[in-house]
Amino acid sequence: MKTKARYKLTIICALVMATSGLMMAQDAPKLTDPEIASVAVVANQIDIDYGKVALKRSKNKEVTDFANRMIEDHSAVIDQAVALVTKLGVTPKDNAVSQSLMSQSKETLKKLNSVSKKDFDKTYIDNEVAYHEAVIGAVKNVLIPQAQNSELKDLLEAVLPALEAHLGHAIMAQSKISK
Amino acid sequence: MQSHKFLVSKYLLIVAVLICAFVLLMGFESSENTYKPTRHTVTIFKMKFNPENLVVNKGDTVVWINKDFYQHDVTEMTSRKWTSKPFNQGESWSKVITGDIKYYCDLHKVMKGTITVAK
Asked: InterPro entries under this entry (chain B) (predicted)?
């Protein structure tokens, strides 16, 4: 019982850590387009990294299918973002938000790599639900309103339905894993 | 003599009615036989099948076109009887419709659609 309570507390802490960087973004000073491009690439790369850990650690088809999808879809977004910044001649610029996301993802990766095999699937999917909720909020409320270039705005708007579909998929997987 | 004439005209009238009925029946039958199957398009864009619900005639073809930069597929939902396998942006997949279908994208399980055959 003690272990279960500690486990729950750890998950809550991890979720708070995962979302706080994106919440910070909502209070952050105005981001320029190169900074928005950097945040977009970093946020996608983080979920690819989580997916790679899931493929390494999980045997659950629900989880591995979801992880493969995250790797494929977020890689496709990065390809689009790279093509766009290349076309626009813009270099993504590191900033406080992308740095905060990176440092928090390191903590989450540490957790995903160290949690017991038995608890991995639930930890991964719970994190995916929370991460996608946070990213959707940041894209909707921070990145899209602040983007100046119309093509960058279009790309972010095109990414939003995919993030929402991923969230729906993660919630479906979460309900199956929790049973 | 008159009654013979009357009988002949009655006979001719019956023959005429039968010919008309036959022509009408042939007409209906041929209109069914000459129904040309239609091609319908479902666009896959922004993680949605558009239109999500489509009504077609039996024998029509539905073409799904992927306009997203993500891969998608079209998979029968009830028991995964058939699937298109994943296809990329700009690619399409088609199926001749023989009955009602509920389908989804097996890669993005929240994407769903239906095809209904008109009665």
From this structure: BlueCu_1, Cupredoxin, ET_Amicyanin
As a whole number, mean pLDDT of residues A104-116 equals: 97
Q: What pLDDT is recorded for position B88? A: 97
What are the residue boundaries of the structural domains of chain B, listed by start?
Answer: 1-34, 39-117
Residue A175 has pLDDT above 60, yes or no: yes
Q: Write the pLDDT tens digit of every residue in A43-53.
A: 999 999 999 99
What range defines the domain where residue A161 resides?
2-178
DSSP A136-177: HHHIIIIIHHH--SHHHHHHHHHHHHHHHHHHHHHHHHHHHH
User: Which token pair is B28?
Assistant: 């209906």
User: B39-117, superfamily in CATH?
Assistant: Cupredoxins -  blue copper proteins (2.60.40.420)
What the block records as the tokens of B4 is 């013979």
Most B CBs within 10 A among A47, A68, A69, A171, hence the mutation to make, goes to: A69
Nearest to A169 among B68, B71, B109 (CB): B109
Size of interface A-B (CB pairs under 8 A): 34
Number of domains composing chain A:
1
Closest CA–CA distance from residue B85 to any residue of chain A (Å) = 14
Q: Please name the residues in contact with B61: beta carbons below 8 A apart, sequence gap of 6 or more.
A: B37, B38, B39, B40, B94, B95, B96, B97
Question: Do B69 and A158 lie within an 8 Å CB cutoff?
Answer: yes
